[in-house]
Amino acid sequence: MKGKRGFTLIEMVVVLAVVAILAAILVPTIEKNIQDAKIARAKNEVQVVGAAMASFYKDLGIWPMYSDATTSPPTAVDFLITANGTAGSDPNGYHWWSGADNGYDTFENQLISNAPGYTACTAPTQEMCWNGPYINEVKPDPWGHQYSSNVKDATGSNAMWVWSAGPDGVADTNSTQARSSAALSNDDIGVRLR
User: Fold this and answer.
1) 194 residues of the chain, pLDDT tens digit each
2) pLDDT number for residue 50
3) Which residue, among 77, 78, 94, has the nearest Cα to 165 in the 3D structure?
4) Distance CA 144, CA 167 (A)
5) SS3 for 111?
6) Burial level of 34, CB count in 10 A (0-12/13-18/19+)?
7) Residue 128 lies in a domain
């Protein structure tokens, strides 16, 4: 058909060049916004888990720290972690629960299902009893790693945290630093409970 023209090769190259330039400008901005959103989500989630632990404390007068609360004395644990998700990379040996004397339990057992067997509330007048679930679920952090808490420190004067290894998945804060500090190291994300 006469009179109909397509695009020339030069016009196509110019359009592709403009699209490539716009993509080069926008992609880093979009990636930064996605990373910022993940950091904000992690900050929110550690606060939600921390609030659930504080509610637990309000009801029972202790922090969630036993794998079996029915024994005398109860079987203690040193750390709580998220049941699903992977442990963050740990080049410095800073997985708080890896060398724990009493091991670890999960947030899910403590805050959702009462697997340790804390005394459950059966009457409204009963005091100091498990009145959960305190949270619906505890997901891995936005990068797929476990959240953790150094509940062993709940019995002393040391700081206790709900914590994530952050965007790089590397545990930069060791337990000694966390016990004595008001802040976590590098990109670790957490909330101090005590």
Assistant:
1) 566 677 788 888 999 999 998 888 888 888 888 888 999 999 999 999 999 999 999 999 889 989 898 888 888 888 888 888 777 655 544 455 555 566 788 999 999 999 999 988 877 767 788 998 999 999 999 998 889 888 887 777 788 888 888 888 877 776 666 677 777 778 888 888 88
2) 94
3) 94
4) 10
5) helix
6) exposed
7) yes
Query: Which residues form the domain of 109?
Result: 44-192
Q: What are phi and psi of 170, to 5 degrees?
A: -105, 125
Question: Does residue 26 fall inside a structural domain?
Answer: no
Is 63 in contact with 57 (CB distance < 8 Å)? Answer: yes
Within-domain flag for 169: yes
pLDDT of residue 113: 93
Answer whether residue 16 is part of any domain: no
Q: How far is CA 79 from the centre of its chain?
A: 13
Tally the domains of the chain: 1
**pTM here?**
0.80
Which helix (H) or strand (E) is 104 found in, with range?
strand 104-106
DSSP string for 27-89? HHHHHHHHHHHHHHHHHHHHHHHHHHHHHHHHHHSS-S-EEESSSSS-EE-SEEE-SSSBPPB
**Dist CA 191 CA 47 (whole Å):** 6
Task: Label residues 107-127 b or e (16+ Cβ within 10 Å = b).
Answer: bbbbbbebebebeeeeeeeee
